[in-house]
């Protein structure tokens, strides 16, 4: 996933495998002019959340203005993922970095169950998340 805007753009991939040849979690990072977007797909659970947390912390350190989490490819979202998402939001608030989230159906279900859709600035599309964050 590459965000096409003027300014710095880079991409890196990280896979955490569940079974041989099948990644449980894929994270793609794009950067452009103070914005970092993480495209996350697969399963977010106790086994994969350390990799997710490392990417989130790095993005929040490097993002000058906003971090958008595209979780539209997430097919399982456990309690560990919810904790990581809430911690990212809290750290973003401390650093002055806006955090937008594009949830999949699985993520939306968990957010709705706990009434947290507004807490994490859940948006229906990446474009909506970018607009929410002033892009």
From TrEMBL:
Region named Disordered: 1-21
Highest taxon, organism lineage: Bacteria
A Pfam cross-reference name: STAS
Domain STAS residues, every copy: 25-133
Name of the molecule in the record: STAS domain-containing protein
């Amino acid at each position: 996933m590459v965000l096409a805007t003027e300014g710095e753009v880079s991409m890196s991939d990280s896979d955490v495998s569940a079974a041989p040849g099948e990644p449980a979690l894929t994270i793609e990072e794009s950067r452009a002019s103070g914005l970092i977007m993480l495209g996350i797909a697969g399963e977010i659970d106790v086994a994969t959340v350390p990799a997710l947390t490392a990417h989130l912390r790095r993005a929040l350190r490097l993002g000058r203005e906003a971090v958008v989490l595209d979780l539209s490819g997430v097919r399982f979202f456990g309690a560990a993922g919810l904790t990581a998402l809430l911690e990212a939001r809290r750290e973003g608030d401390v650093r002055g970095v806006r955090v937008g989230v594009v949830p999949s159906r699985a993520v939306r279900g968990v957010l709705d169950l706990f009434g947290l859709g507004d807490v994490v600035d859940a948006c229906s599309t990446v474009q909506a998340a970018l607009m929410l964050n002033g892009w």
